[in-house]
Amino acid sequence: MNQEKSRVVWFNGELIPEGKASVSIYDSALMFGDMVFEMTRSFNKSQFRLREHMERLYASIKYMRIPLEMSMDEMEKHIYETIDANDPSFAVDDEHRLMIDVSRGILSIYQGIVGLHKGPNVIIADFPLRWTVAGMGKLFDIGINAVITSQRAIPAQLLEPKVKNRSRIHYLMANIEVSNYEGDNNWALLLDPDGFVAEGTGDNFFIVRDNVLITPEPRNILRGISRAYIFELAQKLGLSCIEKNIEPYDVIIADEAFMTGTPFCILPVSSLNNIPIGNGPMGNITRQLLETWSSEVGVDIVGQIKKWDSERGGQAVAGPSPYSFRQKI
Hints:
By secondary structure, the chain is of the alpha+beta class. The protein contains eleven helices and 16 strands. The strands form three sheets. Strands 8, 9, 10, 11, 12, 13, 14, 15 and 16 form a nine-stranded mixed beta sheet that branches. It has a five-stranded antiparallel beta sheet with strand order 2-1-7-6-3. A two-stranded antiparallel sheet has the order 4-5. Strand 4 and strand 5 form a beta hairpin.
């Protein structure tokens, strides 16, 4: 079955073909980046921490004053409607990657235009997770080179990073910078205006020092669902996990480092600006966390991603990172 033609999107109360889902050029999302969103994943096609994602989504909606009347329970019902409608077009070993967008809708000055949807837009898309993690299998073996960018994280007093929103030009500029960095497997790592490590462009950051997990304080970052789960896994393993300011110096002398994110869960960081971290790409504690996560969800996380990569037949992924902006000369 051709997945491109068969997937559907839940769009303001209707399931419509994926290729026909679009918002108006007068939508506030296009004008201001005025949209909040969540992206989830499944394990064995069962959604992981969906409620936590939805709670963060509704917190973002509240903060942004988007007048959405749909309840969280109604949203969850529509999410599963979308999954059920799309599942027949997925391969047996595919996982469901949901993208839930909520925009304020068209701006008031355009309200009189005939034929435009009035009020907030709710869009629930569902596509194979393997798209998002394509080419990442090798990173479990060689690790990421984290690159500190000139682009800084925007602090909470200027623009609240705990709201997961589409106004992400600073992420984009960091990714453009890193995509032109020498070498491969480079991922952006942003500092806050005080010079402390904040986050990646869609992932959270941890180091390990003397068997203690350390992650940046949550004031100037998006508080990730995967980040929170690391605290739970650490407790299961009897490990301390603390939040504190981290300087680049702390990263360089760390025993281990890793990124967390919904699609890949955990990826080791083997170097910072090409300076090696620890004694190898994946440290012992990072491996324990990843193996425990796999056991808890009943999926070999590393094996699944590597299998999908092998099925791609070695087809190259454009760019040195998940985002390709490398300029052609």
